[in-house]
Specification:
five-stranded mixed sheet, 5 strands, about 25% strand, Aminopeptidase, about 160 residues
C-alpha cells in the first residue's frame, strides 16, 4: 500500500533515511532529526512531501520529494530526493509502486518530469530505474555548494 506520509510516520522515515545513508556509505553525514523532518513535511508551509510503502502494516519504504521547475518546459516537475525500500521486503514491488505514485501525481498535475540522482556505483538501482524507462542524463554534472563554502559565499562582501 502506498499512501502520503503522516506525522506518525516520521520516526520510520528517519530510520529509513539513516539506512539509506548507511548503504550509500555516508551515515556520518545525516544530521536530520525527527523534528527537522516533522517541520519540513508537516509544518505551516511544507515544501517537501513524502509517500510511504507499507508492508504487513509497517512502513517499509519511502519516497521524499519536492517540486522543481524547468524553464525549458515552463512547468514544474518532481524532484525525488530519496527513494528507499527496506532490503528485507525488496522484490514486492514497493519501489515501483512509489515511483508509479509520483508519476501519477506528475501526470495528474501537468508536471513535466520526475527526476532524481543515483550514485554511479549503485548498479542495482540503476538497473531498476532503467527497467522503468528512466534514462541517465550523462551530459549534466551535479554541483553542490555546502558547509564553509556556502557560508563564505553568502557572507562575501558583507
Amino acid at each position: 500500500m502506498i499512501r502520503p506520509a503522516t506525522p506518525d510516520d516520521v520516526p520510520a522515515i528517519l530510520r529509513l533515511v539513516r539506512d539509506l545513508a548507511e548503504y550509500e556509505r555516508a551515515l556520518h553525514e545525516v544530521k536530520a532529526t525527527e523534528e527537522d523532518l516533522r517541520t519540513a513535511l508537516f509544518g505551516p508551509e511544507p515544501r517537501v512531501f513524502a509517500h510511504v510503502a507499507e508492508h504487513d502494516g509497517e512502513v517499509a519504504g519511502f519516497a521524499l520529494w519536492f517540486l522543481s521547475f524547468s524553464t525549458w518546459l515552463g512547468r514544474h516537475g518532481v524532484y525525488l530526493e530519496d527513494l528507499y525500500v527496506d532490503p528485507a521486503v525488496r522484490g514486492h514491488g514497493h519501489g515501483r509502486a512509489l515511483l508509479r505514485e509520483l508519476a501519477r501525481i506528475a501526470d495528474e498535475r501537468g508536471y513535466g518530469r520526475v527526476e532524481w540522482a543515483v550514485l554511479n556505483w549503485n548498479t542495482p538501482s540503476i538497473g531498476f530505474y532503467e527497467s522503468l524507462g528512466a534514462r541517465p542524463q550523462d551530459e549534466w554534472t551535479t554541483y553542490r555548494l555546502t558547509g564553509d563554502a556556502l557560508t563564505a559565499l553568502a557572507r562575501e562582501g558583507a
